[in-house]
Design goal:
Protein name: DUF599 domain-containing protein
Keywords: Membrane, Transmembrane, Transmembrane helix
Shape: elongated
Order of helices and strands: HHHHHHHH
Largest sheet: none
Strand content: under 5%
Organism: Thalassotalea algicola
InterPro entries: DUF599
Distance between the termini: 68 Å
Structural class: mainly alpha
Number of domains: 1
Helix content: over 70%
Pfam families: DUF599
């Protein structure tokens, strides 16, 4: 058997942490101010402003910058996958390195291969998330190019169109976030090579870190205040 009962418990905790946090964050974001919820409101304001502008060079530059960031992670994922696949041919050396570490849990040859396979799967998943995010930003560019101009910003049809553009951008941002989340959890899997207990602790620590950053950080508070100010400004104009 390539894995001990402790390894099986560790991978179960890892999967519970990843899937559980994803469902928790998605549900909580519907009722609680967080990065995803507040940034969506900012995107709506952004698209409202976009339809009132005759020249949209700034928007094109901003969207291109967002796509460059995602492209960086997508290409990095491919490089990491290539590096991990190379390790499959160096299992003996990797096994000797792990065995030289103090307090490290000894793994079988097959066990190390399966652990590498898990890491590979995570980065393949991240690559798919990043590339889907890039495609959705491409869809948004088309919608921006097709958006008519309403200098007064009072056309209700164009307002609805602006909200749909914000939805597409929001979905692209979610895919980007899922890809980054895969990177976070891949670091937890690396601890599995050392010891299953460290793997369990690191999985829980990743969930705690994600929760603090997405729901409790200073950035969230600042974005929330900014969201309220933008709504007040828009209501004052109307």
């Amino acid at each position: 058997m390539p894995f001990s009962w402790l390894d099986i418990i560790a991978i179960a905790v890892f999967l519970a942490c990843w899937s559980g946090y994803t469902m928790f964050a998605r549900k909580k974001a519907k009722t609680t101010n967080c990065i995803a919820r507040c940034l969506h409101q900012h995107r709506i304001h952004w698209m409202y402003e976009l339809i009132t502008r005759d020249i949209r060079v700034t928007e094109a530059a901003l969207l291109a910058n967002l796509e460059r960031n995602i492209a960086f992670f997508a290409s990095t994922s491919l490089l990491v996958i290539a590096g991990i696949l190379t390790l499959f041919a160096q299992i003996e050396k990797l096994e000797s390195v792990i065995s030289s570490l103090p307090y490290a849990d000894m793994s079988t040859h097959l066990g190390i291969q399966l652990k590498l396979a898990v890491v590979t799967f995570i980065f393949v998943l991240a690559f798919f998330h990043f590339t889907w995010s890039m495609r959705q930003y491409g869809f948004l560019n088309v919608m921006v190019g097709a958006a008519p101009i309403d200098l007064e910003g009072k056309n209700e049809n164009l307002k609805q169109y602006a909200r749909q553009m914000a939805v597409v951008q929001d979905q692209a941002a979610h895919s980007y976030n899922y890809g980054l989340r895969s990177y976070y959890f891949s670091l937890a899997v690396l601890c599995w090579f050392f010891h299953p207990i460290v793997f369990i602790v690191s999985s829980i620590l990743v969930v705690y870190t994600l929760y603090r950053r997405e729901f409790m950080s200073k950035a969230v508070r600042a974005i929330t205040v900014g969201q309220d100010l933008l709504w007040q400004e828009r209501n004052a104009k109307s």
